[in-house]
């Protein structure tokens, strides 16, 4: 880990930032830029490791070693056993895959608990599971400032509850969620827990076992790697479920959950992205720098009364992701205006339908989402704030 956080050095590690140095990639919650070692690992794997697994020649043996190391790396990153690490196309695909394997758990019906703060990738798979099994989906509510209504957990979790899903952090509002109330409620009734850590992984340290969560999802393209998905699950849970698979594939272990040949290039690149975050920069250094960015943006936005923040107004309990609206301007128009000024942002619901509906934003164009990560600096924050002034 470096002795100190050097923003110039960090930015030099991202080739995309050199393509247009004046651009501000404030679309980070929708996907971050790839770090150099991740790009290098992808290219190297495509050249040297273009083989399938478990064959008696060198390239295949190297692929086997890559998979082993990747599972060790993600096991450490997510606080989970390596044998419970499953790779896939993306979090959404993995969640739907798991949902079908959970049909047997809810074969006699029951309740599934989701939250009004979730991205739809952590809602739709469980709605489908409920429809197939005759189960009921119940939702934990959120407060007006986009936080989990903890009292609502107690109201919706009952003896009928068999599955509880929740986000580690909101991709819409940046809200950080405490897993403890969900885990405690699940333990009382014997329910499984699934945590969507896609938005949280670039910002927060995760330990599945310490949290007591059964399954964690994340997506490396949200933390400086490729478009890929990862599931970290309790191996005992995976062993007792029956995923869709072809007959010749393994009947035990994480590989039986991976349909077809895995993308070894993406596995290599994803592993390199974790190495960069953990070893080259350090999660504590990332958190400290991002807190400074969040404080700067929140302080600046508070001085601009025409703009409204949706989500926690204090830096504690949030990531540097901000949903904002203007008193008169349409969110899409704001995003377009920022784009004209070289600032990349999204407007709308960003697939977070439940939180947008719960806060009354869904039918009004959603919100403008501005997201920072550790390769941004104070100048980026100031430029965004200045651009908001120009727009309204």
Automatic annotation (TrEMBL):
Superkingdom, natural source: Bacteria
Domain Aminotransferase class V, which positions? 26-384
User: Which stretches are transmembrane?
Assistant: none
Gene3D superfamilies registered for this protein in UniProt: Aspartate Aminotransferase, domain 1, Type I PLP-dependent aspartate aminotransferase-like (Major domain)
Q: Which PANTHER family match?
A: CYSTEINE DESULFURASE (PTHR43586), PYRIDOXAL PHOSPHATE (PLP)-DEPENDENT ASPARTATE AMINOTRANSFERASE SUPERFAMILY (PTHR43586:SF21)
User: What protein does this entry describe?
Assistant: Cysteine desulfurase
Q: Which organism is it from?
A: Euzebya pacifica
């Amino acid at each position: 880990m470096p002795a100190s956080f050097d923003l110039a050095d960090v930015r030099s590690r991202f080739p995309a930032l050199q393509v247009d140095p004046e651009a501000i990639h404030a679309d980070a919650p929708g996907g971050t830029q790839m770090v150099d070692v991740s790009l290098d690992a992808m290219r190297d794997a495509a050249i040297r490791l273009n083989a399938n697994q478990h064959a008696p020649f060198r390239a295949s043996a190297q692929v086997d070693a890559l998979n082993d190391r990747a599972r060790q790396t993600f096991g450490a990153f997510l606080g989970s056993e390596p044998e419970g690490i499953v790779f896939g196309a993306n979090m959404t695909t993995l969640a739907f895959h798991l949902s079908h394997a959970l049909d047997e758990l809810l074969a006699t019906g029951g309740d599934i608990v989701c939250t009004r703060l979730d991205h739809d990738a952590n809602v739709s798979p469980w709605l489908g599971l409920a429809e197939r099994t005759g189960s009921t989906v119940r939702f934990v509510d959120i407060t007006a400032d986009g936080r989990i209504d903890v009292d609502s957990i107690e109201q919706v979790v009952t003896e009928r509850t068999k599955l509880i899903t929740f986000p580690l952090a909101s991709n819409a509002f940046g809200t950080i969620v405490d897993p403890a109330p969900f885990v405690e409620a699940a333990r009382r009734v014997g329910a499984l827990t699934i945590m969507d850590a896609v938005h949280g992984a670039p910002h927060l340290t995760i330990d599945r076992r310490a949290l007591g969560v059964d399954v964690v999802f994340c997506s490396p393209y949200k933390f400086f790697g490729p478009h890929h998905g990862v599931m970290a699950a309790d191996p005992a849970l995976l062993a007792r479920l029956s995923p869709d698979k072809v007959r010749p594939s393994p009947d035990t272990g994480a590989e039986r959950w991976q349909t077809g040949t895995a993308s070894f290039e993406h596995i290599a690149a994803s592993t390199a992205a974790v190495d960069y975050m953990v070893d080259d920069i350090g999660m504590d250094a990332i958190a400290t720098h991002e807190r400074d960015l969040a404080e700067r943006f929140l302080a600046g936005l508070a001085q601009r009364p025409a703009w409204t923040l949706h989500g926690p107004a204090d830096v504690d309990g949030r990531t540097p992701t901000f949903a904002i609206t203007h008193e008169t301007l349409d969110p899409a128009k704001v995003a377009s205006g920022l784009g004209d000024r070289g600032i990349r942002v999204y407007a709308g619901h960003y697939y977070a339908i439940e939180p947008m509906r719960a806060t009354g934003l869904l039918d009004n164009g959603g919100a403008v989402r501005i997201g920072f990560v550790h390769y941004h600096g104070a100048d980026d924050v100031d430029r965004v704030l200045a651009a908001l002034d120009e727009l309204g």
